[in-house]
User: What shape does this take?
Amino acid sequence: MDVVARHNITVSGPENGRPLVFAHGFGCDQHMWRHVAPAFEDTHRVVRFDFVGAGGSTVPYDPDRYATLDGYAADVLEVIRGLGLRDVVFVGHSVSAMIGALAQVEAPDLFDRLVMVGPSPRYIDDDAYVGGFDEPAIHGLLDALRSNYLGWSATMAPLIVGNADRPELGEELTESFCRMDPAAAEGFARATFLSDHRDVLSRISAPTLVIQCRDDLIAPVSVGEYVAATVPDAELVVLDATGHCPNLSAPGETIDAIATFLRLRSAA
Assistant: This one.
């Protein structure tokens, strides 16, 4: 099947522009980038797509392939190679930040830079490492998701997006969660929240921007600091924003951080 149809790929901007690939996080789809991606369409070839089980993706969910984030990283490479892209700037939100890291380490020749929005290489605390959750909390989260996915979505989405004074954001994320195939959602959640990819960070060779919100339930600032300190060539920008989805809650600040990174790195 054609790669465009498999991953519901949308492309905009000039054909000769530097490719800028946006990848969505768990429970979302490419629509979550609608406030950010258009800002780069004048200068970049902007690519958005949907992971398995989300949006308009027609990829069948294979629990073996997607048992780990490596299966999703393979899909990223399928998108990039299928479109014939090189020198890609990959922008990954949440778990897609680490998916992009895995893809970059696997095929460094395809990537120019990484932008990681709210990344977390490990969600579970481990000795001196603070991921934000203890192990029982993560397993409880996964058990609740498995037993009542719609109820879990209605409870968790507003907490994840934060910004309680803007309930429409929580409602949008809830609706996005509920549109996702439940089997794919459960598998994606397990691959996400039980993963530990701290060892990947030191192998990233692309210049990297880490974007972090100052108050994020899913990825505390300490995690963003850890990622930026461990990736060999990385810088950290902490937005004056709350929640885990600045692409929804603070798109202007997110655009500015990405644009500044692209401009300064191009001039270097």
Notes: The mean pLDDT is 92. The first strand starts at residue 10 and ends at 12. Strands lie at 10-12, 18-23, 44-48, 88-93, 111-117, 208-215, 234-242. The longest helix spans residues 251-267.
